[in-house]
Amino acid sequence: MLSSYQTSEWPIGVRGQPSVRNFSPFTNTNGNRNIYLTTAGIIGAGTLGFLYTLHQSVQASDIYQHPPHYPWPHNGFFKSFDHKAIRRGYEVYKQVCSACHSLRYVRYRELIGVSHTEDEARAEAEEIQVQDGPNEAGKMFMRPGKLSDSFPSPYPNEEAARAANNGANPPDLSYIVLARHGNEDYVFSLLTGYQDKPEGFILGEGQHFNPVFPGGAISMAQTLFNEAAEYSDGTPATASQLAKDVVTFLSWCAQPEHDKRKKVLINCWLIFGTLAVSLWYWKRYLGSSMKTRKILFRNLTKSENKK
Ligand code: HEC
Q1: Burial class of residue 299 (count of CB atoms within 10 Å of its CB; 0-12, 13-18, 19+)
Q2: Ligand 1 surroundings by CB, under 6 angstroms
Q3: Rounded Cα gap, residues 99 and 154, in angstroms
Q4: Where are the chain's structural domains?
Q5: Whose CA is nearest to atom 26 of ligand 1?
Q6: pTM of this prediction?
Q7: What is the number of the ligand 1 atom nearest to the C-alpha of 92?
């Protein structure tokens, strides 16, 4: 019986034809195409390098200090948030930052199971006053907060906030950790980086010198000092401890799905990793008969050729 290779396209044993053929798919590579691809690769890499260099030089001309990189406990593929730090950070936010900053996109119920029990979270919520209404008389009224309420702004509107802070608006802190270049490192360095202003540096009224803040002049005074807040778990409240904890809390605010996301990702890696290895083995198994096949060609003998 003829195998599929022994068709007229593969004239086997015809007199005058070479009896061995090269089946390699790589012999017909187009030389020009290779040259084009190599040139495009070199130009592409050059352009990228040039753009990167330009970007670096622009950064070097900025007048602010880039924050160092700190080893946050939740950085890393297998790391989750330090939930005790989130709880302490909440205490710092409540005692210090909430005097000026809101957390409009975080609700009290989100603390449940993260840093507080349900009863604790409800008790925290009830400490704030929220405007609700209108009631039957058509009047707005104030009521204690509920679990579904978000962390309120201390100011009724932006103008009031600016008026109280020398014209600067304290930004909402819900997403601040992700909204700034340098993320946690930046906010930590900002809170701990206040310095005396250098000779000749001009500050406006109510401004303070902070080399991490772009421009150096920030309208937020230093707020974290040793013992600036009190911890319920007895941790020594040094300025850097307060800053680290409040930044961990703010980082959780900006990405409350963080721990779950990493868990799902680990599961995905396990499932797809197993699948990939199985598929690879299956492919080897299926292909083994093809890969180990030997095709031999020989010239037909005279008598066979006559047939
Ligand atoms: C007395 C009011 C006040 C308090 C208290 C306060 N801030 Fe601020 N904060 C401000 C103001 C005002 C600005 C805007 C500064 C500016 O734009 O110059 C600001 C800006 C910021 C910024 C943004 C900086 C940027 O890059 O734009 C962060 C982050 C911040 N505050 C974090 C905190 C944290 C964390 C706390 C608590 C530990 C805190 N603040 C306490 C008033 C305050």
Answers
A1: middle
A2: 92, 96-97, 99-101, 165, 168, 170-171, 176, 180, 187, 190-191, 213, 218-220, 223-224, 246
A3: 6
A4: 83-102+153-260
A5: 213
A6: 0.78
A7: 38
